[in-house]
């Protein structure tokens, strides 16, 4: 289905639905120091692939956009616990020696490319290995049915709840066999072409010229489905609650999908690197050396590796690989300009190899607000943040199956940062809207900045903003988000439209 189109037609500054009592003007700070730390988990191995222990911060070089930056925090983690590390001047240790360092395992099951038999075998192995979860560890289970993401189990350390979720996942249907059959039918076309060319006594060069464009074809059904699946993988990371600490994503899908349109996986890598997730893909279709190599390339961009193994005891492999690493932290100069920066970790000792994430993103407030809208749309929002008042007006025709829909938003005044002007005060806040229709089609839009001007600082109440959105004439759910500039976080509200 085509992506929904939505554009803002107008933004009008509305009146304030507040009492205008005079109170002292607030002090406004324009310079904000952002001290968020970017954590880089670096796995170091020797030439035999064995983990290397006992390194210090002095053994590493950390480069951002090709320039070396200081390592502000450093800890070695060995089998899930902080190790004793040689101190380095100017480098802090965020963990005490022998302190448990928890991990969060996000199990994402892609039912669109998975084959039921392969998927079930892997899930059974994961369930049988839940005893490997440490006291500080947790896990969540999500499935994608080809159109929507479903939460089978939120973040929890309850092994019984996780076992029930994994059992439920095994009872669900998959579409991988169907897509593989459709893709293989195109291989039959190649064989037919070779047979016909041989009968007509074509030369080897003539046969090769016929087969070259055919070798680049992919099943249109697979291409269409991947257009939904790859964005859903990225959206799951962006929208699902991101726990603190070490984050791991077990990505159960069909490795052959990597050859359909590799560029579609770019947003997944960006989201994983921005949020600090290490990817461990698992081929649950028809794993071959070629598909596993493709998945390993996907994982390498985030410091992970392909998790398939003989016997498919993938969770044990992931636990072992993700439990021992070096934790490098640095504080970048955050600018909020929606830019992705490269990260490279180098070792000063020869003969060693290192795996780590390849980048991080410096997002603007508007982009962060839009991502929050997407998260609320997919997974629901925190009830404490549902404080926007949303009122839809009467739609009016806009031509070609579209309508213009007036929207009035009520934003708590206490969440608006007021800046003093020569006469009165002004407040601005970025607005974002996420939309889904009744068939799962989604649109995520960063809107304009809401702006209101007042002569006096109001006490309590709501500021009213009015805008108009243009969208298709179809049943849709709309989620609106506004950043809470005073208390932090994001406020949200939602409404449903039926033509």
| Largest beta-sheet characterization | 5 strands, antiparallel
Annotation, overall tally of beta strands = 24
The percent range for strand residues is: 25-35%
Principal-axes shape call: globular
Distance between the termini: 19 Å
Radius of gyration computed on alpha carbons: 26 Å
Secondary-structure class: alpha+beta
| Mean pLDDT metric | 83
Question: With helices defined by DSSP (H or I, 4 residues minimum), what is the helix count?
Answer: 9
Would you identify the regions where 5 or more consecutive residues have pLDDT less than 50? 1-34, 192-197
Helicity level:
25-40%
Topology:
Layout: E1 7-17, E2 38-45, E3 60-64, E4 67-69, E5 73-78, E6 81-82, E7 103-110, H1 116-128, E8 138-144, E9 149-156, H2 159-170, H3 176-199, H4 204-215, H5 220-239, E10 246-253, H6 266-275, E11 277-283, H7 289-300, H8 314-322, E12 325-330, E13 339-347, E14 353-355, E15 359-362, H9 365-379, E16 389-392, E17 396-399, E18 402-412, E19 419-420, E20 425-437, E21 442-454, E22 462-472, E23 476-483, E24 490-497
Parallel strand pairs: 7-8, 7-10, 10-11
Antiparallel strand pairs: 1-22, 2-12, 2-14, 3-4, 3-13, 5-6, 5-12, 8-9, 13-15, 16-18, 17-18, 18-22, 19-20, 20-21, 20-23, 23-24
Question: What descriptors fit this protein?
Answer:
single chain, 499 residues, alpha+beta, five-stranded antiparallel beta sheet, 9 helices, 24 strands, 25% helix, disordered N terminus
């Amino acid at each position: 289905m085509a992506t929904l189109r939505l554009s803002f037609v107008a933004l009008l500054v509305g009146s304030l639905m507040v009492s205008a009592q005079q109170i002292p003007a607030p002090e406004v700070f324009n310079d904000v120091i952002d001290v968020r730390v970017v954590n880089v988990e670096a796995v170091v191995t020797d030439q035999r692939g064995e983990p290397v222990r006992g390194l210090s911060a002095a053994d590493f070089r950390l480069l951002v956009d090709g320039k070396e930056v200081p390592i502000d925090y450093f800890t070695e983690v060995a089998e899930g616990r902080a190790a004793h590390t040689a101190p380095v001047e100017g480098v802090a240790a965020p963990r005490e020696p022998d302190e448990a360092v928890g991990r969060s395992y996000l199990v994402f099951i892609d039912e669109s490319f998975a084959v039921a038999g392969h998927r079930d075998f892997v899930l059974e192995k994961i369930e049988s290995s839940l005893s490997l979860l440490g006291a500080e560890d947790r896990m969540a289970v999500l499935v994608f049915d080809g159109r929507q993401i479903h939460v089978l189990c939120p973040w929890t350390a309850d092994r019984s709840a996780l076992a029930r979720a994994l059992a439920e996942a095994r009872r669900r249907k998959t579409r991988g066999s169907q897509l593989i059959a459709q893709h293989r039918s195109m291989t039959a076309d190649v064989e037919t072409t070779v047979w016909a060319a041989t009968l007509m006594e074509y030369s080897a060069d003539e046969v090769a010229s016929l087969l070259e464009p055919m070798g680049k074809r992919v099943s249109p059904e697979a291409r269409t489905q991947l257009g939904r699946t790859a964005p859903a993988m990225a959206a799951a990371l962006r929208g699902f609650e991101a726990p603190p600490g070490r984050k791991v994503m077990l990505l159960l899908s069909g490795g052959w999908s990597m050859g359909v349109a590799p560029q579609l996986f770019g947003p997944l890598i960006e989201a994983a690197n921005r949020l600090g997730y290490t990817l461990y893909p698992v081929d649950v279709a028809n794993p071959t050396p070629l598909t596993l190599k493709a998945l390993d390339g996907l994982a390498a961009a985030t410091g992970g590796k392909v998790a398939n193994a003989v016997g498919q005891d993938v969770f044990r492999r992931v636990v072992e690989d993700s439990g021992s690493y070096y934790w490098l932290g640095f504080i970048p100069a955050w600018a909020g300009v929606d830019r992705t920066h490269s990260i490279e970790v180098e070792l000063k000792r020869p003969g060693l190899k290192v795996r780590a994430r390849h980048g991080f993103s410096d997002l603007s407030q508007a982009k962060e607000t839009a991502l929050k809208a997407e998260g609320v749309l997919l997974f629901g929002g925190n009830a404490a943040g549902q404080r926007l008042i949303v009122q839809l007006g009467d739609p009016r025709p806009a031509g070609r199956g579209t309508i213009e829909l007036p929207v009035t938003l009520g934003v708590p005044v206490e969440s608006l940062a007021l800046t003093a002007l020569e006469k009165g005060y002004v407040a601005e806040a970025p607005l974002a809207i996420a939309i889904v229709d009744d068939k799962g089609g989604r649109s995520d839009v960063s809107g304009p900045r809401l702006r209101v001007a007042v002569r006096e600082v109001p006490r309590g109440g709501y500021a009213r903003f009015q805008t108009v959105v243009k969208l298709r004439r179809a049943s849709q759910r709309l989620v609106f988000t506004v950043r809470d500039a005073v208390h932090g976080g994001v406020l949200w509200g939602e409404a449903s439209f039926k033509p």
